[in-house]
Amino acid sequence: MTYDEFNDVFSAVINNTAVVFEKLRFNEHVNIYEAFVAMTVFSFGEFDLKLEGLFRSFDCDDGGTIDR
Asked: Is the dihedral of CA 8, 19, 41, 56 positive or negative?
């Protein structure tokens, strides 16, 4: 995603989206999945619950594994 797209999505939960975008960007873009993981890991809450939520987000077929 471009900075404008990133800002549209995350401006409600991040005070300074430009700083976060710069830390996550690669070739002027941020991967939405990487941004989602970073926001989850660095948010408040129990790590185990965040990890379970991330796993479930990437287990697309509910099979208990994450496939390519």
From this structure: positive
